[in-house]
What we know:
It is an enzyme of class 7 (translocase). It catalyses: a ubiquinone + NADH + 5 H(+)(in) = a ubiquinol + NAD(+) + 4 H(+)(out). This protein is mostly helical. It has one domain. It is 74% helix and 3% strand. The protein contains 21 helices and two strands. It has a two-stranded antiparallel ribbon with strand order 1-2. Helix 5 (117-136) runs antiparallel to helix 7. The model is unreliable at 3-9 (pLDDT under 50).
Amino acid sequence: xxxxxxxxxxxxxxxxxxxxxxGIFLLVFINPEQQKLMxxxxxxxxxxxxxxxxxxxxxxxxSVGTFQFVxxxxxxxxxxxxxxLGIDGISLFFLLLTTFLIPLCILISWNSxxxxxxxxxxxxxxxxxxxxxxxxxxxxxxxxxxxxxxxIPMFLVIGIWGSRERKMLASYYFFLYTLLGxxxxxxxxxxxxxxxxxxxxxxxxxxxxxxxxxxxxxFTFFLAFAAKVPMVPVxxxxxxxxxxxxxxxxxxxxxxxxxxxxxxFIRFSLPLFPQASFYFAPLVYTMSLIGxxxxxxxxxxxxxxxxxxxxxSVAHMNVVMLGIFSFNNVGIEGALxxxxxxxxxxxxxxxxxGVVYERYRTxxxxxxxxxxxxxPLYISVFLFxxxxxxxxxxxxxxxxxFLIFAGSFKVNSSVTVFGATGMIxxxxxALWLFNRIAYGNLKSQYIKETLDINKREFFIFVxxxxxxxxxxxxxxxxxxxxxxxxxxxxxxxxx
Length: 495
C-alpha cells in the first residue's frame, strides 16, 4: 500500500479540518491569565494543518486531473444533500497558503494584542477551519455556507481588535459589501437545487443549463465573487478594512480572503456556466482594466502606508482576473501562481507596515524618511518585497504576471497591452513609496528612537522571502501539480 492509497482510506481531509477545532476546544478551557500557554496552543494547532497538507502534497498524484482524497458525509439524506470533501491541484495550494499564513498571523500578534487575547486566537482558528472547508468542499450549498461564515470572525477581528476609531465602520463596510453580493447567489443555488435535485459539485458538472439560465446564474455568482476579489466599483470596503484592521487581520485579508473571489470564479463560474463565461468575458476585461488603472493611480496619491498597499492589492487581483478569463492553460495557471504570489508578497508588505506602526504608532508616510540609516535590515526586506510586488524577474510576481499576459495575449492583444500598463504604474507607486520611506533625512522630530527588526520579526520574514524566491525560481514545482487540474477544467468548459 503506497502513501496516496493510505490517505484515501483514512479520510485525511476530514481529520485535518478538525485540528483547528481541537485547538479552539483547548483554548476555551485555558485560564485567560495564562496568555503564553494560549499563544503556544494556538500557534501549534494552527500550524499542524500546514504540515499535514505538505504531507498530502507528497501523496498527490500530479498526473490526475480529477479530485483526490475524496470523502463523503451524510448531511440531510432526505433532501439528497451530502457533504463531499476533495482536492485537486487548484485547491491544494490555496490550502497550503491558508494554513501557512494563519500561524504567521498569530506570531505577528504575539505582543500586540492586549485585550481579550483568548477571543482573538479563537477567531483566527475559526477562520482557518472555515477556509479549509471552503477549499475542500465539493458541494455548492456547503461552499456558500462556509464562504459566508468567514465574515463573522473576520468582522470581529476588525471591529474589536482594529487599530483606530473607524474600525466599527470598516467592519460594517466589509460585512455588508461582501454579504449583500452573496444573497442573490444563495437564491441561485436554491434554483440549481430545484432544477438538478442536488448541489453536489461533481454532478452539477454533468448538467447542462440553457444559455439563458447560465447567464442569469453566472451573473448572480459574479456579484458574490466580484465583491471578494474585489473589482471596481465594489472595492470600497477593502481600503477601509485594511486601514482599520490589526496587522494580522490585514495579512489574512490580503493573503487568503481576496483569493476566495478568484477561486470561486475558477471553481464554479467557468466550469458550471461556460457559455455565460464566454459571453460576459468582455465585461470582465473592461472592469478589470478599469480596476488596474484606477487602483494604481489611486495608490500613487495616497498618504497612508496601509491604504497604498490596499490599492495595490486591488490592482494585482484584477490582473489575476485577466488570466482567469483568458480561458487557456497558460493564463489560468498564471492566475493561480499570481494568487499564491500575492498571498506571500502582500502579506509581507502588511507585516512591514506593522513593524513600524508598532514602534511609532502612525502609518502616515510623511512622518517617515531616512530609515535606511537606522533600520538597514528592515529596509533590505522592504526593498526585496517592493521588487517582488512590481514583478521583478526571479521573484514569484514575475512568473505569475508573465503567464497571465502570455495567456491573455492569445485571446485579446489589446487587453494585454492595457493590462500591462498596471506593471508600469506599479513600478511608479511601489518605488516612490520605497524612496519616501528609505531615503532622505531622518525625521527625528517625529521619530525619537529607531530599532531594527527583532528576532521574532526576522523569523516571520524568512519563510515569506524563501517561498517568494522558490515560487519565482522553480515554478514547475507548483505548475506540475496544477497542470492536469487546469486541463480538466478547460475540458469541462469546451466539451
